[in-house]
Every structure is written in structure tokens, then in C-alpha cells.
Amino acid sequence: MGIVQEVKTEQGVKIAVLKGDVDTKSASSVTEEILPLIEPDSKTILDMVGVEYMSSAGLRMLLSVYRQSEAQNAKLVLLGLSEDIADTMSVTGFLDFFVTTDSLDEAIKLLA
Fold first, then answer.
1. Contact of 5 with 36, CB cutoff 8 Å
2. Closest Cα partner for 107 from 82, 77, 85?
3. CA distances from residue 3 to 75, 83, 92 in whole angstroms, order as listed
4. Domains of the chain and any CATH numbers
5. Quick one: what percent of the chain has pLDDT higher than 90?
């Protein structure tokens, strides 16, 4: 099984559960699995509670997902970023592009 452990739908919101490191070995497969979820006007949560490490390839994956969301007028929330990943995203300016939260209930409310 890859980094994307599960994709489920709750209250009309697609939730992709990621687990493991998103690095040069895994980022392209994660991108291939996540991008098809981003459809016109869709609502998607990337549950990243299980992601402990993200390399620059992982940041590029997130940028691809963000661009797809913008192009499709879709909404996207990142759930459960580790402190290290959030810090890296903040320093690089990536955090400015995303809505983030640590609560699934809050993530669903943000997309309502």
C-alpha cells in the first residue's frame, strides 16, 4: 500500500488519509492518487496526521494539488500537519496557500 492509505467521503467531502513520508520516492504516486479527487467545485481534505516527513518533492506535490484546486474552483483543507512540516511550509511561504486545521470536524465545517 502506498502513502495514500484510504479515500473516504463524509458529508460530501472527500478525505484522503496519508501515512508515511512524502519524499522523492513517494511524491509522484501521491500526486497521481490525489489529483483525480480534485474535481470542479469539489471539497477535499488531505489528512496528513500520519505524515511525519515531507521533502521538497512533497512540497511540490502540495503545490500541484493547490494549483489543481484553484483551476477547478475546488476547496482544499490540510488536516493535522506536524509541527516540522508546518514550520517548513511557513518558512517557504507554502502555508499561505492552504487552509489548515488539526480537527476533522473543523475541517469539514471549513468546507461547508
1. no
2. 77
3. 22, 19, 23
4. 4-111 (3.30.750.24)
5. 97
Per-residue burial over 89-112, b if 16 or more Cβ lie within 10 Å, else e, is: beeeebbebbebbeebeebbebbe
Residue 112 pairs in a beta bridge with none
Query: What's at 42, amino acid-wise?
Result: S
Residue 104 exposure: Cα atoms within 13 Å on the Cβ side: 12
Please tell me the distance from the alpha carbon of residue 100 to that of residue 78, in angstroms, as a whole number. Answer: 5
Q: Has residue 1 got a pLDDT over 80? A: no
**In the prediction, which pLDDT does 2 show?**
80
